[in-house]
Amino acid sequence: MQIDLDKSDPERLLRYYFGGYASAAGADPFEAGLLVARDGAFFVDLDALEGRQAENALRDADGSGRIEWEELEAFVHATYYDARQVPSTAAALHARAPYREGGWFEVEVDGVMTKARRRLFVAEDALRAALRTYQDNGEQLLYPSGTVIVGEHYVEGTHVETTAMLKRGDGFWDFATYGPDGALAFTTHTGPRDLKTPTQCVGCHFGKKQFDPEKSFPGEARPGPHGPRALHVTPQARDAGLVRFFDEHRKRSDTVLGLYGTLFIAHLQAQQRAGELSEEDARLLEGLIDASS
């Protein structure tokens, strides 16, 4: 059946969503037979998809003769977490990616996605891998498959929600939200509006709009209508040269909106000034400095 999302770059969206249902991790949904492209239109094999998600099959609910966005969105929300085998609880996520332990880079942010204060965690080894291949990947920060980025949301000091991005083998990210009870949730609940997971996550990450406080960095962002917008970093981390070099938020090379690579390099430079930098990280810095000169 034809599938018509009435969205910009529908092929990319279809590869993202249906790649999540392909039988092999990271499989291309066109190669897997779930999708067919013909004469500029796209078609989904409902029988092949139903075999994978029989209880909540994708259907032409309104009888229009095609699958439209609202029908795909309903199917995704009913089946996506199970299809992707996303960790079922925040505790299971932490067991898979022990982000409160050593070896994780932490950034604290007040931004536009939520009124909560966010503590964001990225494995340092994943950052190093993306930075080592920065030039080889055309000056793009591309994280290795299996990378997990976690955000803990706090309201008045209380942890109320967790969000996560999990890098797939096909280069896309899965998105997950965990509520205050630690169970998987289909939307965020920390305002200024509830955001559906994963469909509204994808909308921002695939788009081109820039967001504060990252947009204004290394300057200070102005408060928004729902509260402050700030990256809580040291003054030394506000390095205009690094921001220009990586241009990370505008590029969103890996559909990642945070300034993790930029801030991690600033962190390593601070260690270097303090005489605390490891030989491995000294080589990493040297390679990037040579590339920027």
Structural write-up:
The protein has 293 residues and is α+β, with helices and mostly antiparallel strands. It folds into 2 domains: 82 residues, no CATH class; 197 residues, no CATH class. It contains 10 helices and 11 strands. The strands form 3 sheets. Strands 10-9-8-7-6-5-11 form a 7-stranded antiparallel beta sheet. Strands 1-4 form a two-stranded parallel ribbon. It has a two-stranded antiparallel ribbon with strand order 2-3. The longest helix has 16 residues. It is globular, with a radius of gyration of 20 Å. The model has no long low-confidence stretch (mean pLDDT 93).
Considering the chains and any ligands shown, give keywords for the structure.
alpha+beta; two-stranded parallel sheet; 293 residues; 2 domains; 11 strands
Q: In summary, what is this structure?
A:
The chain is an alpha+beta fold. It is built from ten helices and eleven strands.
Give the terminus-to-terminus CA distance.
Answer: 53 Å
Q: What is the average per-residue confidence, as pLDDT, rounded to a whole number?
A: 93
Count of runs of 4 or more consecutive helical residues: 10
The chain-level structural class is alpha+beta
Secondary structure layout:
Layout: E1 3-4, H1 10-19, E2 35-38, E3 41-44, H2 46-50, E4 67-68, H3 69-84, H4 90-96, E5 104-110, E6 117-123, H5 124-132, E7 148-155, E8 158-167, E9 173-178, E10 184-185, H6 199-206, E11 230-231, H7 240-246, H8 248-251, H9 260-273, H10 279-292
Parallel strand pairs: 1-4
Antiparallel strand pairs: 2-3, 5-6, 5-11, 6-7, 7-8, 8-9, 9-10
